Amino acid sequence: MKRPGGGLGKSQPKRTKREADEVSSLESQLGEAAGAPADSQDVAKRFDDLPISEYTKEGLREAGFTRLTAVQRAALLPALCGRDLLGAAKTGSGKTLAFLIPVLEVLYRRRWSSMDGLGALIISPTRELALQIFDELRKVGKQHQFSAGLLIGGKQVKAEQQHVNGMNMLVCTPGRLLQHMDETPGFDCSQLQVLVLDEADRILDMVGECCYAPLLRPGCPCMPPLHQLQSPDFGLQSMITFASVWNHKYRNRCK
Ligand SMILES: Nc1ncnc2c1ncn2[C@@H]1O[C@H](COP(=O)(O)OP(=O)(O)OP(=O)(O)O)[C@@H](O)[C@H]1O
Fold this sequence. Notes:
single chain, Rossmann fold, 6-stranded parallel sheet, binds adenosine-5'-triphosphate, ATP-binding, ATP-dependent RNA helicase, DEAD/DEAH_box_helicase_dom, EC 3.6.4.13
């Protein structure tokens, strides 16, 4: 796990004028895209043509990603515009980048810093998947300054507790997340900007019928109910859920 403020990649100075200009330009491009009818939007085929930061583009280039997959073409622009997303696509179709890029970009545009706490929570059903997501996050987020942590079973919870409250992004499995909610003093998810459930159908099978509101456990003090997180008093901009199979059970539970 990275230390608070340690960043996903190299250390960088405070936000520069170039970054501030880039954020306003991105906000205006995304504002236009959000206002345009969906069928009139020209969907980018290459990452370089997307309205995303140079840091993310550089991370993608370094990792060898140039062209969007079909699920990325369908999901990225709406998610970048801050819309909630409910998607299903088969294994290996590139869902991970379809949610990691919006996570990085929402925090970047909101000028999230090490002082702002937990801004993005990505929940995955298994350790192996969580680890894969974390590895991909480290690659594409390399140029950003955010701190990121991986919370999965099989490690000493005490060691994680020393750093978890300083993380901007967490990739976790449901059981370990619940453990931190129960046992880590000051663990706070109330400032979340983006919430991602990968393989949401499997997560819901694991945690039962309590669904997303309040995510994993009704009445949990460190995680306000979803409707509150989405109110103007809180900042949740988007919730992204993906499954590898689309079925009625998944759709009904996500309502
Ligand atoms: N645009 C892209 N160009 C090239 N390779 C890509 C692209 N997007 C994703 N990949 C690669 O394709 C592989 C599968 O992607 P990913 O793990 O995101 O799929 P997934 O749909 O999440 O599958 P799973 O359900 O198994 O997690 C990964 O190795 C990933 O790095």
